[in-house]
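haha ok so turns out i had the wrong file open the whole time. this is the CORRECT one, sorry everyone. sequence first:
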Amino acid sequence: MPRLLVLATSALGVLWVVLLGGLLPDVVASHFDLSGRADGHLPRPVFVALMAALVGGVPLLTWWLQQRAIDSGRPRIPNAEFWLSAAQRQATGEWLRFHAAVFAIATTVFLAALHALVVVAHRGPRVELPGGLFWTMLLAYLAFVGVWALRLQRRFGRS
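then structure:
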């Protein structure tokens, strides 16, 4: 089930990028300075293709790499001898697979939301990234990553 959710979220993320990409001008502000002002531009087809590749590819790649580590029996977890013993291996693998899927889905959502912010930035008279919203999203994603890593450590830090 996690595999299906990861693939579906990725496909929906790519579709989101393509659909919203149609709302962008021919030349897209693709990079912004710390204050939210555009300081880099790309042609729309290039920008949309890059964003689709990022939204669809980065989360899938991280998920796939985690799956490979789990399948090989060599995930990098604390106390691996205990957690990968015959008695614990199946439960450990299921836990890791679920949390790898959660990470991939959250990353897809974050990247797709960033794309939406770029679209919003182009809606006003000046191309400017909504700074408060960007920083809030970034901090929320970083908080998620921190909690995700702490859960991993707490789960496998003891045996």
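The mean pLDDT is 94.
again sry for the mixup
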